[in-house]
Amino acid sequence: MGEFRQLESELSDINHLHKGILRLGIPPMVGMLMAEPIGLFRQRYPGVELKIAEFGGLTVQQAVSDGELDLAMTALPVDEESGLATLPLFNHPLCVLAPRTAQWEAVSSLSPQALAAHPLVIYNEDFALSQQLMQLFTDHDVKPRIAVRSGQWDFLAAMVQAGIGVAILPQPICERLDARHFCTIPLQSKLHWELGMIWREGVYLSHSAQAWLECSKKFWLNA
User: Fold this and answer.
1) What is the CATH number of the domain that holds 131?
2) Is the N or C terminus of the chain more exposed, i.e. has fewer CB atoms within 10 Å?
């Protein structure tokens, strides 16, 4: 039955690239980086409707595995046993976001061990980056003092500005915040925010999904 449905999908998809639906998963942290590639895709394929689901990276990974989404962007790497194919697109260093005070202005970089002395505002557990950060703390024998968890980077930034704690965020997000209110301090770690597209390996990928991958390569990899 599964093979029949896949063949049916392939036949119905032929020559229908200019119409259809693409189900795309995007973690909330990535949303602000997606406007331009989505615009590029819409210019090329105006008849394809994009249905975007915003969840944490681990949730979108499961949704792709379950066939609820065609593709998703998530933090890499994914579990080797997940059955997901990946297309790495970009990576950025992580930074510590702190309120702009004389104390933080004097800090040039921070180690994971140094963060143990400060309350931390961090992403929810269903974010892949959150799990990677918790593993980083474990590797350095650090027990973080978590004050707040949230799925929204702008809420975490507001908590930092209010003095509730510091956050660890990807550099592009920190750069979008008002430098008059925040200090962006490099994190001493090889851990980077690496993102890419994922889809089910060995399962038919619609022409719309293939077109999205090509647009992603064009936008981020100049391929």
Assistant:
1) 3.40.190.10
2) N
